[in-house]
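Researcher: Sequence recovery benchmark, item below. Answer with residues only.
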C-alpha cells in the first residue's frame, strides 16, 4: 500500500497523457463562489471513477478549476436538482497535473446520495490547482445530467504557528486548519513521532493512543549482513492486519525479525524460496520502547506474489525495526531471507535549469537510492539525478512525463537538499511525487518546492520496482518568490522602497546631476550637492545645476557679485570689485557703491581731482569752454548732430522706429536695418519697418506676392508654395510653376489626375459616365441626361466654373448665387465693419480688435469705441479704469466692484456695475429624509463533511 504525495502546483501541458483528456477547458471557480449550472453541455470523458467503485458514470462531466494560493480547509457542496428532474450526481476532486486530471489520483469522491441528494466533500488541500468534476450516475432510470448548484467555501491557512518548534504547525479550526500537530506545546508529539504504547497519550497524532501494548515481539533478532532460512511454522499467529488496512487477510502464522542497526543506514531485505506459498513481507516501526512492533505503522511492504519479495527502508542508528513474514489466507512454510545494510547517496547529477526541458532514460542507470526517510515504501528501480540552483528565492515546479506507449515504467520524482558535500542521501528528501503509471493511466509526476538562493537541490527520477526503467521528459519552471517587502525586478529581488536602481518601480533608477541620490519610501530623494555645486532653482529634476564660485552664485545661490560701473569677480567665495569701466573711477575708495565717479562730468573731469567751473565744461576728460568745430554742446557733451542718434539734427531728437534699428545720417533719422520678419515697404522711416514678411502678399520681400494658377498659395518660411488646387483642377505634372494646370473634367483626367475614361465613356461632373451630350463644350454634360451642367448652352456655366458673387447667376451650378464676401482691405485678418466685420478702420492694418490702444493719441486702435485716456487711473488695480474719466469701473476704490463680478443679492451694493443691486429670490423649502431598515442575510447551516481519502495498491 502506498499513498500519493501532495502535489503543489500546475504548469502547462508538455506531453499528452496516455489517458483521455478529461479536464480540458475547465470553468474557473473561486473560494466563496456558488455557481448554478447544467452539465448537459459537457461530454462523457470518464465512464468510471476508481474511488467510487465499479459503477457506471456515463453522464457528461462539468469541470471547474479551483486555484489555492495557500493551503486551506475546503468545503464543497454539490446540490443537484431535487425536483421533478432530480438526478444522481457525483462529485470528484483531483489535483491538476500538467493541465489535465487522472481518475486514479482523486483526492476525494462523493456519491453518497441518490437522485436529488446533496454531495459534500471537506478537507485540507495544500496550495495548488484542483479540478472539481460534476459527473452523473447512469442506469435505465436516470440520464446522469441536469441542473445543479456547486458551492465552495475556504478557510485559508494564513495564521499557522509552530509553538513547540517540532516542525509541525499546531491545528486551529479558525486560524490554521492545515495544522497537523495535535499538541503544539510538546515537541515530542507530532505526526511521524514514535508512538509509545501502554499509555493514554497519542504521540504520533493519528487520533488514538495504544493501550495496552500489543503482543507483537520478534522471533529472531538479526544483524546487517545475515542470511539464512526459516519457516513461518516457527512463528506465532498474533497479527491478522497490517498498515491499518482493515483487511484481516493474514490469518496464517507470522515470523518476525528484529534489527537494530548501529548506524544510520538503508536496509535491504530479500524474502525468497517460498515453495509456492503466498508469504507477504511487512517492514514495521517499533513503539518507543524498541521492544514491541507497531503493526499499524508500515515503512514498506511486498505482497500479492508467491515470488521473491524485495523490501528496503531507511533505518536510524540504535532504533529497532521489525520485518514480519506472514501467510495470506492460511499459507505458510519455509523461506530464505537476507538483510544487507549500506549507506546510499544520490546519483551524480546532470544540470537542470529554470525554464529548461531535458529528456532521459533510466534503462542504462543503476539503483543508488532504495529508500527515503519519511516515504512509506521503497523505490528499488534504477535512478537518474540532476541538480538545479537559482540566484533568488523561487518556487520551482517540476513536471515529469513518462513516455507513453504500452505499459510505461512507474517512475517517481524526488527533490533532495544538498548535504553540504555536493551530494545527498535518504534523509535529505524535501518533496516527492509518485503516482502509479500503468497501461490505463499515465499521470505525470508534478511537484513544487521553495528554493533558497544560491543553494543546490538534487532532483532524482527513480523507479518503483527493479524492472521500472524507461524514457521520460522532465521540465523545470521557476517563479521568483521574493520575500515579503521585496519585488522581482528582472529576476532579482529588490526593495522598491530603498533600491537606487528600482525606486518605486522596476527600472526607475535614482540619479541627480552633481548630487548624491537615495531612495526613500519608494521615491527618489536628492541628497547633498557635490562640492562646488548648489541647487539654486529648487528643482530636483536637474540636480545641483549651478556651479558656485561664479559672479552669479559666489558663496551660495543668489550671492551675486555686482559693482556699479565696474567688473566683478568671485575669489575664495567672496565678491571683489575688479577694474572700473572706461570713463568711471572709484574716487571714494568704497567698493560698496562701485566706481561711482563719472570722469566725463564737470565734478570729476578725466580724474578724481579735476573739477570744471563755469563757463567751462568737461569734454573728453578735459575742461573746455566750447566744443570743437562741427560739434554742438548738448547736455554735458559735444555731439555731431548730423550723426548722433540721440541728438539727430538738434539736441534731444532721438531716432526711433517700429521694428527697426535706426541711425542718424546727415542730421536725419534713417532705417539702418529691420528687425525680425519686418520690412520697410512704404519707404517711410517715420513708421519704421511697418510690414511683416512671410505673408502671401509679402513672402520673401516687399511685393513678393504668392500666386499660382487655379490654386491657393501660401508662404512657407519665405518661399511661395502651392497650398491646394482649386476645385476642379489638379497639379498633374507635379510642377508648381504652372499651378494646377489640368482641369479635372476631361476624359484624360476625370475627377483626378491620370483617371482616364475608357472608350465609350466621357467625363461628366468628374466621373466617367456613359455618353451624354455636352452642347456648350465646357466638359460637363447637361443635367437632363445625368450630367452636372445646369446651363448646357453657356460654356462659362458648369460645376467647376468660378462663381461671380452677387450677379444673380449660378455659375458653378451649386444651386445658388454666391454672396460677395466681406472684404479685408488692409490685410490685418479683420473684415470691414461696414459689411459685418469687426475692423473699425479697414484702411489701416494697425487698427483692429487685436491691437492695444495707445493712450492719449486720440485713435481707437482696438476698435472698442473709445480712445484710452492716459490720465484715467485704475486706483484699485482690478483692470478697470474709473468711470468718471471714460472707464467702466463704477467704484474705482474697491477691487471687488467692476463689470464681470457676480452681484450678491440684497446687500445694497452694485458689484457688477450694471446700475442696480440684484433682488434675492424667495427661500427654497427644505427636504425631509427617512431611512428604511435593511434585512440581514441569514446564515446557511454547516453541512456534513466527508474526509478525503486515497488508496493505491502495489503490484
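Model:
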Amino acid at each position: 500500500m502506498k499513498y500519493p504525495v501532495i502535489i503543489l502546483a500546475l504548469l502547462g501541458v508538455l506531453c499528452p497523457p496516455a489517458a483521455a483528456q478529461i479536464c480540458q477547458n475547465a470553468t474557473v471557480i473561486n473560494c466563496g463562489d456558488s455557481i448554478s449550472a447544467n452539465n448537459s453541455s459537457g461530454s462523457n470523458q470518464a465512464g468510471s471513477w476508481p474511488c467510487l467503485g465499479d459503477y457506471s458514470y456515463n453522464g457528461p462531466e462539468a469541470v471547474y478549476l479551483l486555484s489555492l494560493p495557500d493551503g486551506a480547509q475546503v468545503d464543497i457542496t454539490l446540490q443537484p436538482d431535487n425536483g421533478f428532474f432530480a438526478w444522481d450526481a457525483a462529485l470528484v476532486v483531483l489535483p491538476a497535473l500538467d493541465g489535465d486530471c487522472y481518475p486514479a489520483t482523486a483526492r476525494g469522491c462523493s456519491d453518497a446520495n441518490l437522485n436529488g441528494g446533496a454531495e459534500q466533500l471537506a478537507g485540507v488541500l495544500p496550495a495548488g490547482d484542483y479540478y472539481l468534476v460534476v459527473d452523473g450516475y447512469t442506469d435505465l432510470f436516470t440520464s446522469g445530467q441536469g441542473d445543479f448548484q456547486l458551492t465552495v467555501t475556504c478557510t485559508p491557512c494564513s495564521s499557522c504557528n509552530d509553538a513547540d518548534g517540532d516542525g509541525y504547525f499546531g491545528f486551529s479550526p479558525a486560524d490554521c486548519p492545515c495544522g497537523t500537530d495535535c499538541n503544539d506545546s510538546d515537541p515530542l508529539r507530532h505526526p511521524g513521532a514514535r508512538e509509545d504504547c501502554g499509555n493514554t497519550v497519542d504521540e504520533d497524532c493519528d487520533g488514538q493512543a495504544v493501550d495496552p501494548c500489543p503482543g507483537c515481539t520478534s522471533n529472531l533478532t538479526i544483524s546487517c549482513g545475515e542470511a539464512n532460512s526459516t519457516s513461518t511454522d516457527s512463528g506465532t499467529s498474533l497479527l491478522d492486519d497490517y498498515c491499518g488496512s482493515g483487511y484481516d487477510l493474514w490469518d496464517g502464522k507470522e515470523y518476525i525479525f528484529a534489527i537494530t542497526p548501529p548506524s544510520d543506514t538503508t536496509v535491504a531485505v530479500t524474502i525468497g524460496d517460498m515453495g509456492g506459498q503466498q508469504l507477504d513481507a511487512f517492514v514495521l516501526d517499533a513503539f518507543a520502547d524498541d521492544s514491541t512492533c507497531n503493526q499499524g505503522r508500515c515503512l514498506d511492504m511486498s505482497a500479492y506474489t508467491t515470488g521473491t519479495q524485495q523490501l528496503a527502508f531507511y533505518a536510524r542508528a540504535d532504533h529497532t525495526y521489525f520485518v514480519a513474514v506472514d501467510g495470506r489466507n492460511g499459507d505458510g512454510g519455509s523461506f530464505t531471507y537476507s538483510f544487507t545494510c549500506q549507506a546510499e547517496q544520490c546519483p551524480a547529477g546532470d544540470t537542470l535549469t529554470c525554464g529548461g526541458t531535458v529528456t532521459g532514460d533510466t534503462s542504462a542507470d543503476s539503483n543508488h537510492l532504495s529508500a527515503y526517510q519519511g516515504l512509506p515504501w521503497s523505490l528499488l528501480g534504477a535512478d537518474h539525478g540532476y541538480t538545479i540552483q537559482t540566484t533568488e528565492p523561487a518556487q520551482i515546479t517540476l513536471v515529469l512525463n513518462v513516455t507513453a506507449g504500452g505499459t510505461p515504467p512507474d517512475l517517481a520524482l524526488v527533490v533532495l537538499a544538498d548535504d553540504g558535500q555536493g551530494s545527498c542521501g535518504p534523509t535529505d528528501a524535501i518533496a516527492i511525487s509518485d503516482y502509479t503509471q500503468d497501461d490505463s493511466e499515465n499521470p505525470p509526476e508534478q511537484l513544487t518546492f521553495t528554493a533558497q538562493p544560491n543553494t543546490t537541490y538534487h532532483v532524482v527520477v527513480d523507479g518503483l520496482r527493479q524492472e521500472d526503467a524507461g524514457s521520460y521528459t522532465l521540465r523545470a519552471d521557476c517563479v521568483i518568490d521574493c520575500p515579503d517587502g521585496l519585488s522581482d525586478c528582472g529576476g532579482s529581488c529588490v526593495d522598491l522602497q530603498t533600491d537606487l536602481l528600482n525606486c518605486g518601480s522596476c527600472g526607475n533608477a535614482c540619479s541627480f546631476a552633481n548630487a548624491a541620490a537615495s531612495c526613500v519610501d519608494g521615491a527618489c530623494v536628492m541628497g547633498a550637492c557635490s562640492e562646488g555645486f548648489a541647487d539654486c532653482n529648487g528643482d530636483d529634476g536637474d540636480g545641483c545645476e549651478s556651479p558656485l564660485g561664479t559672479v552669479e552664485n559666489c558663496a551660495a545661490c543668489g550671492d551675486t557679485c555686482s559693482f556699479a560701473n565696474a567688473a566683478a569677480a568671485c575669489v575664495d567665495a567672496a565678491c571683489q570689485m575688479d577694474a572700473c569701466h572706461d570713463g568711471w573711477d572709484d574716487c571714494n575708495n568704497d567698493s560698496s557703491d562701485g566706481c561711482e565717479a563719472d570722469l566725463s562730468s564737470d565734478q570729476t573731469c578725466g580724474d578724481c581731482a579735476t573739477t570744471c567751473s563755469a563757463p567751462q565744461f568737461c569734454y573728453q576728460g578735459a575742461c573746455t569752454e566750447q566744443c570743437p568745430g562741427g560739434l554742438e554742446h548738448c547736455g554735458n557733451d559735444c555731439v555731431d548732430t548730423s550723426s548722433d542718434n540721440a541728438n539727430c539734427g538738434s539736441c534731444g531728437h532721438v531716432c526711433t522706429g517700429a521694428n527697426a534699428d535706426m541711425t542718424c545720417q546727415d542730421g536725419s533719422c534713417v532705417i539702418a536695418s529691420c528687425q525680425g520678419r519686418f520690412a520697410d515697404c512704404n519707404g517711410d522711416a517715420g513708421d519704421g519697418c511697418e510690414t511683416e514678411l512671410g505673408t502671401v502678399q509679402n513672402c520673401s520681400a516687399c511685393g513678393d506676392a504668392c500666386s499660382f494658377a487655379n490654386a491657393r498659395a501660401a508662404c512657407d518660411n519665405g518661399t511661395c508654395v502651392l497650398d491646394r488646387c482649386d476645385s476642379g483642377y489638379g497639379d498633374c505634372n507635379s510642377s508648381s510653376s504652372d499651378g494646377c494646370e489640368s482641369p479635372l473634367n476631361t476624359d484624360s483626367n476625370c475627377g483626378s489626375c491620370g483617371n482616364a475614361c475608357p472608350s465609350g465613356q466621357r467625363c461628366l461632373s468628374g466621373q466617367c459616365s456613359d455618353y451624354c451630350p455636352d452642347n456648350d463644350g465646357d466638359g460637363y454634360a447637361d443635367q437632363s441626361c445625368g450630367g452636372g451642367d445646369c446651363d448646357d448652352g453657356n460654356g462659362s456655366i458648369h460645376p467647376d466654373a468660378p462663381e461671380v458673387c452677387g450677379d444673380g447667376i449660378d455659375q458653378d451650378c451649386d444651386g445658388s448665387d454666391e454672396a460677395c464676401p466681406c472684404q479685408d482691405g488692409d490685410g490685418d485678418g479683420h473684415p470691414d465693419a461696414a459689411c459685418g466685420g469687426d475692423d473699425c478702420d479697414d484702411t489701416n492694418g494697425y487698427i483692429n480688435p487685436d491691437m492695444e490702444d495707445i493712450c492719449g493719441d486720440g485713435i481707437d486702435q482696438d476698435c472698442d469705441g473709445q480712445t484710452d485716456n492716459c490720465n484715467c487711473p485704475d486706483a484699485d488695480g482690478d483692470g478697470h479704469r474709473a468711470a468718471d474719466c471714460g472707464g467702466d469701473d463704477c467704484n474705482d476704490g474697491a477691487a471687488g466692484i467692476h463689470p464681470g463680478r457676480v452681484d450678491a443679492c440684497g446687500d445694497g451694493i452694485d458689484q457688477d456695475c450694471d446700475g442696480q443691486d440684484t433682488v434675492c429670490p424667495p427661500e427654497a423649502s427644505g427636504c425631509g429624509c427617512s431611512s428604511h431598515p435593511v434585512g440581514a442575510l441569514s446564515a446557511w447551516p454547516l453541512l456534513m463533511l466527508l474526509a478525503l481519502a486515497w488508496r493505491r495498491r502495489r503490484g
